[in-house]
Structure formats: C-alpha cells, structure tokens
Amino acid sequence: MMRAWLRWCCVLVCVGMLMPLQAAEKNGARLGAGDVVRVSVYGNPDLSLEAEIASNGKLNVPLLGDVALAGLGFDEAEQLLANKWQAAGVLQKPHVNILIVESRSQMVSVWGEVNRPGQYPLRVDTPLSAMLAQAGGVSAGGAQRVELLRHGKTTEIDLAKLASGQQQDLLLEPGDQLHVKRQAMVYVYGEVARPGSYPLTEGMTVMQSIVVAGGFSSRADEDDIVLQQPGSKGEMEEKSVHPGDPVSADAVIRVGESWF
Fold it and tell me: pTM higher than 0.90 for the full model?
C-alpha cells in the first residue's frame, strides 16, 4: 500500500514538473507540416517516437500508420492518437504527450544588419542570441541593439548588456521578428588627425566626436567648427556649434583650417 502511494506521488511530481514546460512550449500553437515532434506514451516506450510531420500533414505512428496532425492543437493531436490506439485495441486509456522539437511550420524572421537575413525554423527553447548566431551574427554595419517585434509590440534588446548578463536572453516564439538596426555613425572631416566615420555613442558631443577622430590637427581652427545634421524632413541642416553640443545619427562635423 505504501509502495503504491509513493509511486503515485512520483507520478504527480513528474506531471507537475512537466506542466510548466508543456505550457511554455505549446503556447496555443498548432502543428504543421515540417514540424519535428516527440510523441511519448506513458508506460509504453515502444510507442514513443521523434519524427517530422510530412508535407501532406501526416505523421507515421507506430501501429497506426499515417495520422493527419497538421492544423491540430497539441491537446487535439494527443487526444486523437489516444483515441486511435484505444480503438485499435492496442491500449486502454493511453496517456499521450506531444512536444515540439523543431517548429519548421512556424518561423522566426531575422532582418536588418545581419550576415544572413531570412526566415528560420524555431526550435524549442531557442533564445534570441542563438537565433542571431544562426543568421550569421550582426554584420559590420550593425548596431548592438536588436528590436524584437512580437504581437504588434516592440522590445529593444541591448546586445552588449545581453553578453554581460545585465539583460535577459529572451526565448523566442513562433512569428517573432528580429530587426538588427544599422549602427548610427558620425562623420568627422577637415582638420582632425584621423578624418572618417565613427560609431555614434549615446550622448556623444561635437568635441567627443573630434577626440575620437584623433583630435584637432596642428592647422585646425578650433573656432571654425560646422555641424550638419539631418533635419525633420531629412535634409541636411548646417550651423556653427559649440564643442559641447550633442550630435545625432549621420551628423557631419567639419573643422576648418587656421590661416594664421
């Protein structure tokens, strides 16, 4: 009697541990052609399998043959297999569990400044960082910020904070879109040591931009600094500035030459 009671306690604990995982993985999704699923039957390991749902939407199931599962929710598919095994006289009241191993019917889009933009199949418990790696990583012109578009809402992820553990690596869901932004730049020309383009950091000023470009050259006129920045309509607006003024993305700073 005590042994039977302990056995049921173990079963309840296992079910309790599995329920959050199943809820996270299923999340209202439906099965589709190309999905790789794991089917398990409690107490009957010989009937368990891990296989891909064929292009016709059917899964080849032990002792049942091809069963159409595409378009069904997880609960519906589990009940269907249980009913078929029971009707075939194979099992009495079977407990069937279906988990998705790789969701190829439900994709994640990765676009913007990545080396291989496109759509990728979603595996179970795939974090954002792993999906970016699958897309070849951030390209040379990409920023360290990624936009996650989900259900009409946008969440911005700082990759630097993600790498250092300061920000959580989010698990992706079917239909998610990842957009890697272009790295904002500032262009510094004229009488500086290293004219060229440089990544724009948050709160960067005119003087900080000049310092990044190596500072003033020996011929620079430190009072002759012109800043061009995109206006509200996209046109470049030019003005004389103070070295402490902030700069925006795609700003152009020109340092004039001293004639004395």
Answer: no
